[in-house]
Input
Amino acid sequence: MQQPHPPIIVGGKGGPRIASLAAAWADEFNTYHAMPDACRDRFARVHDAAERSGRAAGSLRTSLMAGCVIGATESEFRARVERLMTWDAEDSRGLTADQYVDRLDAMGSVIGTPAQAVERLGSSRRPASSGSSSNTGCTTRSR
Output
């Protein structure tokens, strides 16, 4: 048994109630499906709640649960998206691969080639959608 107890992880979007619960009880706050700006905002709310409760903000770890679809090349990325769509048939029914990528993008998934994933993770704002099939959700460029 871990002492003094197993790690307590509180998850959510960092609203007032969750932030308060995380500040009081959690060793870690985990959020999900968020773009970098949203993550920073959620983490800041939880850290602020920790400080208001008399706890050092740095004593509360933070983490993000995000979907990932990465391919070494654009064509490998596309092949992986198509395989994922087969596995995720219920949620992808009726969607094109580009529409499915847009859905992954909107959920804050880390998608594309390794370079695009690094750019995505380091991004401070979501790139504007071009509305074309060349938008992988990480960058907008020609194929």
